[in-house]
Write a structure and sequence with these properties.
The structure holds two protein chains of two kinds.
Chain A (H helix, E strand, L loop, with lengths): L1 H35 L10 H6 L16 E6 L8 H9 L11 E9 L6 E4 L3 H7 L16 E10 L7 H5 L5 E3 L5 E3 L9 H5 L6 E3 L4 E3 L5 H4 L6 H5 L5 E5 L6 H8 L15 E4 L7
Parallel strand pairs in A: 1-10
Antiparallel strand pairs in A: 1-9, 2-3, 2-4, 5-6, 7-8
Chain B lengths: L9 E4 L11 H24 L7 H17 L1 H7 L8 H4 L10 H28 L4 H9 L8 H34 L12 H28 L5 H32 L4 H9 L3 H26 L3 H32 L5 E4 L11 H21 L4 H6 L1
Helix pairs in contact in B: 1-2, 1-3, 1-7, 1-8, 1-12, 1-13, 2-5, 2-8, 2-13, 5-6, 5-7, 7-8, 8-9, 8-12, 9-11, 9-12, 11-12
Chain lengths: 285, 391
C-alpha cells in the first residue's frame, strides 16, 4: 500500500511538473510570437490541457468542424497589380511559367462602340512581352490609344465549390472536400489522370509537371489552419480579396456577403461556388 | 532545361491553365481501342448468339481480334497517367461517384470473359495439340486446364457456355464502350462533350470500327494465307457495317444539330471552331471521305450487286475509310473538345508532339500492338474456318 501511495505521489508530482512546464512553454511561445510577428489568431491552450497531450504543439489543434471558409472578391477595388499572382506562385512553389496558375487576374475592357469586352490575363503573350518574362507579371498598357468605355479587373481562383465537379470525377478520392469547406488534393495519392482538370468549368486546375499530379489553389490551407490569411489576400494592397470564416458572423467575409449583392461564377453548373464576387459584368464566367 | 510539356497557342481568351492540354493523343487511342473491342465482339456474337451462319469464317477470328485489342486497352491509359504505379489506387479505393473508377473493374471483368470464351472456342484445338509431341505441346497441355474431354456431349456443353458467355459479353462489351462515351458526355464543363447522346454515338461508332477492322484483317489474312475470301461472309459484314453506319451518322447528325439549335453559351466559339479548324478533319475527313463515301459504295453494292472481286476491293476500301473516320471522330471529340476554351471566348490549337511518352509515335505503337499480337496468337490458336473443315 505504501509503495502504491508513493508511486501515486510521484506520478502526481510529475503531472504537476509537466503541467507547469507546459504552461510555461505556451506562455513563452506566445510572448515570442507576440514579439516577433503580428498577433495571430492562436489561442494559448490551457496549461492543464497542454499537460494532458504532451508534447505541446506550437499551434493548438485545428478543428476543421468549427470553420466554414469562404472567399470574397471585390472587383471594384482590384487594380490589376498582380501581386497576388506573384505571392501565390512564391508561397506555393507554382511553376514560374505562363501556363500554370493557382490564381490569376483577368482584365475586361470594353471599347467605345463595342458591345463585348476584350479579355486578357497576365498570361497573354502581349502582357508577357511587356513584363519581360513569364515569371514576372504585368498588364501591358495595350489600350492607351483606344477609347475605353469600361474596364475592370477580376481576380480568379479555385471556387472551392460546395458540390465540386472535380471531386465527383476523381477515380481514387485523391481530391476531396474538407469539413471546413476547402477542396484539397492528396498529392501522394493522385494518379495524375487529369479527369478533374477536365471537369472544372473554371479552369482552376492544372497539371503539376514536376510532381506529375493535379494541382490547384488550396486557399493556402497550410496558412489558414494556423490563423493566417491566404498569401494572395495578405498581399493585396487594396483589399480586393477577402477571406474568412462564415461561421463567424462578424468575420470580414460574413460582413462582405451580408453587406453586398454578391454573385458566383457559373451558377448554372450546380457546383455552388464559395468565392463570392462583387462588381463583375455578365461577360465574366 | 528540356520543356516538360508543350503549351498550345490560342486565339481570343482562354483560361491560362488551359494552354497545357490535359488529354493527349493517347486518350484518343483509348476509346478507339475499346471501340474496336466492342465492334469485333459484336461480329463474333452475331454468329454465336444470333445465328448468322454466313459469319462463321470470321466468328472465331473476330473473337481473337477483340481479345488482342482488349489486352492493349489499359496501355494508353497507363502511359497517360502522371503516376502509373498508382493506377491500382482506383481499384483499392474506388471513388464511387467517378465514371473512371469502375473502368479497372469493368476492363478486368471483360478481359476474363474474353479469355474464357476464347478458351471454350479453341478447346478442341488445344486438346488436339496437347496430345502431340514437342515443346509446344506442353504449353497446350497447361492450356487444357486438365480437361481433355471433346466428346459430343462435352462439346454440346461447351456450346451452351459459349452462348451464355456471348450473351453476357454483348452488354459487357457495349456497356464498356457506352461508359467511355459517358466519361465524356457527363462532363458539364465542356459544351462540345456535354451530351446525352455521347454514349450512344460512341457505341455505334465502336461497332462500325470493329466491324471494319474485322473486314480489313480478314481480307488481309486470306491474302497472306493465299486462300479465297468468302463472299457471303464479306457481304454480311458489309451490310452490317452499312446498317450500323446509318445509326451512327443519324446520331452524330442529331447531336450536332441539337448543339447548334440549342445555341447555349459558347455557341459562337463552337461555330467558329467548326467552320475553321474543324472544317477539314470533321466535314471532309470524318464525314465526307470517311462516312458518306463508304456508305455510298456499300449502298451501290446493295442496289446493283457486284462481282466478287469488286466486292472485295470496294468493301475493303470502305472499311479502311471507316477505320480512319472513327479514328478522326475520336480525335475530333477528345482533342477538339479541349481546343474549344471553357471560357467560350477563345480557341486553342493543339499540336501533338511526335516523340515522348504522349507523342504520336507512342500512340502509333499502341495502335500497331493489337495486330502484332493477333499475328502471333493466330499461330497458336488458328481461327481459320477452312482448316476447321479439313481437320
Amino acid at each position: 500500500m505504501e509503495d502504491e501511495e508513493k508511486l501515486e505521489k510521484q506520478q502526481r508530482e510529475r503531472r504537476e511538473f509537466l503541467s507547469w512546464l507546459g504552461g510555461a512553454l505556451v506562455c513563452g511561445a506566445a510572448v515570442v510570437a507576440g514579439d516577433l510577428g503580428p498577433p495571430q489568431a492562436v489561442a494559448a491552450g490551457e496549461p492543464a490541457a497542454a499537460a494532458q497531450v504532451p508534447p505541446i504543439p506550437a499551434i493548438p489543434e485545428y478543428d476543421w468542424t468549427k470553420h466554414r471558409w469562404a472567399f470574397g472578391v471585390d472587383a471594384t477595388k482590384c487594380i490589376g497589380c498582380l501581386r497576388c499572382v506573384e505571392a501565390c506562385k512564391k508561397e506555393n512553389n507554382v511553376a514560374p511559367d505562363a501556363h500554370h496558375f493557382r490564381t490569376w487576374v483577368e482584365r475586361y475592357v470594353t471599347l467605345e462602340g463595342e458591345e463585348t469586352a476584350r479579355v486578357d490575363s497576365q498570361a497573354d503573350p502581349v502582357n508577357i512581352a511587356a513584363s519581360g518574362s513569364e515569371g514576372e507579371y504585368r498588364f501591358a498598357n495595350r489600350y492607351k490609344d483606344a477609347k475605353v468605355a469600361k474596364a475592370f479587373f477580376v481576380p480568379k481562383l479555385c471556387n472551392h465549390c460546395t458540390n465540386p465537379a472535380c471531386v465527383q470525377v476523381c477515380p481514387t478520392g485523391a481530391t476531396y472536400k474538407t469539413e471546413d469547406g476547402v477542396v484539397l488534393i492528396d498529392h501522394t495519392y493522385c494518379i495524375g489522370c487529369q479527369y478533374c482538370v477536365q471537369a472544372c468549368p473554371y479552369g482552376a486546375r492544372f497539371f503539376n509537371r514536376e510532381k506529375n499530379v493535379t494541382d490547384k489553389c488550396t486557399w493556402c490551407y497550410h496558412r489558414i489552419t494556423k490563423g493566417l490569411l491566404p498569401a494572395c489576400v495578405e498581399i493585396c494592397p487594396v483589399g480586393a480579396r477577402i477571406f474568412g470564416d462564415r461561421n463567424d458572423e462578424q468575420s470580414v467575409i460574413s460582413q462582405f456577403i451580408h453587406d453586398n449583392r454578391v454573385q458566383v461564377l457559373r451558377p448554372e453548373t450546380g457546383n455552388a461556388p464559395n468565392v463570392f464576387y462583387v462588381g463583375i459584368d455578365e461577360d465574366v464566367n | 532545361m528540356e520543356a516538360l510539356f508543350q503549351s498550345s497557342p490560342f486565339t481570343g481568351y482562354v483560361y491560362p491553365n488551359e494552354t497545357d492540354i490535359p488529354w493527349t493523343v493517347l486518350i484518343v487511342v483509348y476509346p478507339y481501342l475499346t471501340g474496336l473491342v466492342a465492334g469485333a465482339f459484336t461480329i463474333s456474337s452475331l454468329y454465336q448468339v444470333f445465328g448468322f451462319h454466313q459469319l462463321r469464317p470470321v466468328a472465331h477470328f473476330a473473337l481473337l481480334v477483340s481479345l488482342c485489342c482488349m489486352v492493349v486497352v489499359p496501355l494508353p491509359l497507363l502511359l497517360h497517367l502522371g503516376h502509373p504505379e498508382r493506377a491500382f489506387n482506383a481499384m483499392i479505393t474506388p471513388h464511387v461517384t467517378s465514371a473512371f473508377a469502375v473502368f479497372a473493374y469493368a476492363a478486368l471483368f471483360y478481359v476474363i470473359l474474353l479469355m474464357v470464351e476464347t478458351w471454350f472456342v479453341f478447346r478442341p484445338h488445344i486438346v488436339h495439340e496437347a496430345q502431340q509431341h514437342g515443346l509446344l505441346s506442353w504449353i497446350y497441355r497447361a492450356a487444357t486446364l486438365g480437361s481433355y474431354d471433346v466428346s459430343d456431349k462435352a462439346m454440346s456443353y461447351d456450346r451452351k457456355w459459349l452462348f451464355w458467355l456471348a450473351i453476357i459479353g454483348i452488354p459487357g462489351a457495349h456497356g464498356l464502350h457506352g461508359y467511355v462515351g459517358f466519361v465524356f458526355g457527363s462532363l458539364k464543363s465542356r459544351e462540345w462533350w456535354s451530351s446525352d447522346l455521347m454514349p450512344a454515338i460512341f457505341l455505334f461508332s465502336a461497332i462500325i470500327s470493329g466491324t471494319a477492322l474485322v473486314i480489313v484483317l480478314y481480307v488481309l489474312s486470306c491474302k497472306l494465307r493465299k486462300v479465297p475470301i468468302d463472299p457471303p461472309c464479306l457481304k454480311v459484314m458489309a451490310y452490317s457495317l452499312w446498317g450500323f453506319m446509318m445509326f451512327t451518322l443519324l446520331l452524330e447528325g442529331v447531336e450536332f444539330a441539337s448543339l447548334v439549335y440549342r445555341g447555349r453559351e459558347g455557341y459562337d466559339m463552337i461555330m467558329q471552331f467548326v467552320e475553321g479548324p474543324l472544317l477539314i478533319p470533321f466535314f471532309i475527313l470524318q464525314f465526307g471521305i470517311g462516312s458518306v463515301l463508304p456508305l455510298a459504295v456499300i449502298t451501290f453494292f446493295i442496289w446493283r450487286g457486284a462481282n466478287d472481286r469488286a466486292l472485295v476491293v470496294g468493301v475493303t476500301a470502305s472499311a479502311v475509310l471507316v477505320l480512319l473516320a472513327v479514328l478522326m471522330m475520336r480525335y475530333n471529340v477528345v482533342i477538339g473538345g479541349q481546343e474549344i476554351s471553357k471560357t467560350g471566348k477563345g480557341l486553342l490549337a493543339y499540336q501533338p508532339p511526335i516523340l515522348g511518352r504522349e507523342g504520336l509515335l507512342a500512340a502509333a505503337i499502341v495502335l500497331v500492338l493489337p495486330p502484332v499480337l493477333l499475328s502471333i496468337l493466330v499461330r497458336f490458336l488458328p481461327p481459320w474456318h477452312d482448316l476447321e473443315q479439313t481437320a
